[in-house]
Amino acid sequence: MATNPPKLKTAITANERLHNLKKTFEAKYGESPLFYACAPGRVNLIGEHIDYCGYSVLPMAIEQNIIAAVSVNNSGTIQLANTNPQYKDFTVSCFEDIVVDRDNPKWYYYFLCGVKGIQEKFGIAHLSGMLCVVNGTIPPSSGLSSSSALVCCAGLVTMEANQKSLSKVALAEICAKCERYIGTEGGGMDQSISFLAERGTAKLIEFQPLRATDVTLPDGALFVISNCCVEMNKAASSHFNIRVVECRIATKVLHPEPYGREEICKVLDITSEQFSTELLSANTQHVTQFKLHQRAKHVYSEAARVLQFKKVCDSKPTGSIQLLGDLMNQSHASCRDLYECSCPELDQLVDICRKSGAVGSRLTGAGWGGCAVSMVPSETVESFLQAVREAYYLPDAHRAAMEKQSLFVSKPGGGAAVFLEE
User: Would the pTM of this model clear 0.70, i.e. be above it?
Assistant: First the structure.
């Protein structure tokens, strides 16, 4: 595996998406892009809500990604635009401190997280001016890491525009840290797989130190992603960070019943002020009850399932597809019952996927909406897709309108890269 993100020369006119992005850029700014950068989304096959506890996870990059077309100048500003008209343009000065408004998580603030992360890493007083147009094919708020892919793409763009160089591992660590400017207390899985992914293989991502190990998925099965069409924005709600906080506290104190603030302070011998500043995040200050035991029980059991999943993939025992499916089913039950990060629509979708022929199906991503991932025997994937389409999407007008971008087979995609026109 190469140390740094690759720089690839490509015929832009031969790639319809890049060609259209180039034309959009030229129409908007009156000049051609200097380079392009992309960062993929991901699907987490198993290992939900455990990366921020330091445990290994097992994701793969997907072919859907974020691409940015960029030119560099001395204007003293960074101008951002998006091919999706619902995302408004934004301009920021290169000579003022970059401010990320975590109370108003607009798309461009995720981009600015990546810019700010690179600026601080290298101590760049005045960033290069940039013109930038962003195009994304990852469904937003779907649990497929569209926001982290945007942060990673922005970090890569900013590094390239300012003629700096970093390894994939360093970029992943910087982007995981700087995404917290938007208020999400994530653990680094999304950014790590976005940079460290390699086409054709899933990865076991380990932390402290960060490293990625190939995991060869079994022959005879495919992974299908299905979006329940309920959107959840991690930065705009406290669901995600509450779980982070509960796990943080659970490392210090644990019994089966929920804990109140006063009890935790008494057990840990800390003041209420220390509890708020040292253990809580900005958007969890209102929480009064903490389910520490069941959150920890999920984390420990899920961490064990990740290692068992990799072991099955490596050793390929008889019935390995069913064994992996069982682990995925156990993971969903734990996410639903112990971590309480599912939702009725996701549970319904997972149930439909299993009845339609999946050997295993589970929520993927933060939860509370977004996508399920299902392991389906290769020979039955077409009948599976049709059955899910008929049972979940077609009966509902909203879901039916989203079906084409919400139900698809996914193969392991490649990691973040820079493209230069031939």
Answer: yes
